Amino acid sequence: MRIEQLEFIAAVTQHGSLRRASEHLHVSQPALSEAIAKLERELGVPLLDRRRSGARISAEGRDLLRNMIEVLEAVDRLKSAAGDQTAAARMLRIGTVNAGTSSLLLPALRKFQTIRPGATVEIRNLQQSEIETSLAEGGLDVGLVNLLSGDDTPPGLDGTPVRHGHPVVVMPTGHELASRAEVTVDELRAEPFVGMRAGYVMHRFAHRIFGSTLPRDWHSTDGAEMGKTMVVEGFGLTILPDYSVVDDPLTRAGLITSRPIAGDRTVVTMVLLQRRQGRPSPAVRDLVSTLTAPDSQRLSA
Fold first, then answer.
1. Sheet holding 167-172, edge to edge
2. How many angstroms separate the first and last alpha carbons of the chain?
């Protein structure tokens, strides 16, 4: 068994196919496939499900993946302790639902780069279920998701609250409802609406407050950033956590504003998720510390 074989399995898990993993690793696909096949023969279990649509980690491989990730993280820590700067500069993989990308994640990453100037990051905008699966399989180092009051942290993952806030109505700054201190559900229902697609917390929240009577004109999109852009372009109003709007570039530019929903006291929390098992690398610990620093948590429930 060689360390590179474990790295190959982790890469296929992260990128979803032998071809993309080989491109990322700069290793030929036949060589990558043969190295994994040798490891499968050595362990006596199939690690990948090979299909026409691509290769994914098998159920047996998923059971062993956490142990593989722990070995790779231990190797990174050993190299880092020995002064190997390439280990300290390993790409950190962040999955986010993007509600806090502009207002939370990007400022935190700027601060993180002053601590670890050699570190690189990969930010993936995903739905919450995809983030949870990728964390469990080792394809991500950390994830940022939104939870409503009463939601539980997924099994096998640890959650750290990063921001607390409330859902708000997001509208163009010149909209007539911007003159109100708050917006009622009936007023919002009468407007063209930009909703998040199924799988996002704000999709679930919107259906909760509208009940069976939805806005007549309902557009759908993936994620807060496109939702805010559609608001600016006049497609309708949307609902997002307030921490997704405060300090957003579109807010600072005076293009969008937000108002509370009358009578609603729902708390929405952005939570940082990590795998429960295994010790994170020093770079991941620094990233987590930056994201959870007290000066990052400016909104309170």
1. 238-241, 167-172, 256-260
2. 50
Strands 256-260, 167-172: pairing is antiparallel
* Residue 124: band (very low, low, confident or very high) from pLDDT cuts 50, 70, 90: confident
CA distance 172 to 216: 19
Handedness of CA 274, 275, 279, 283 (dihedral sign): negative
Write down the residue that tokens 């590179």 correspond to. Answer: 4
| Cβ neighbours of residue 154 closer than 8 Å, sequence gap 6 or more | 132, 273
**12 in Cβ contact with 6 (< 8 Å):** no
Q: Decide: helix, strand or coil at residue 223.
A: coil
Pick the closest to residue 90 from 246, 249, 257, 286 (CA basis).
286
- Encode pLDDT of 146-191 as tens digits: 999 889 888 888 899 988 999 999 999 999 999 999 999 999 999 9
What H or E segment, with its residue span, contains residue 169?
strand 167-172
Q: Is 82 exposed, middle or buried (0-12, 13-18, 19+ CB in 10 A)?
A: exposed
Distance in angstroms (rounded) separating the CA atoms of residues 88 and 35:
26
Rounded to whole angstroms, the Cα distance separating 117 from 207 reads: 44
Predicted confidence (pLDDT) per residue in 214-261, tens digit: 999 999 998 899 999 999 999 999 999 999 998 888 999 999 999 999
How far apart CA 162 and CA 70 sit, in angstroms, is 26
pLDDT of res. 278: 61
Predicted local confidence at residue 81, as pLDDT: 62
Q: Is 271 left (phi over 0), alpha (psi -120 to 50) or beta?
A: beta
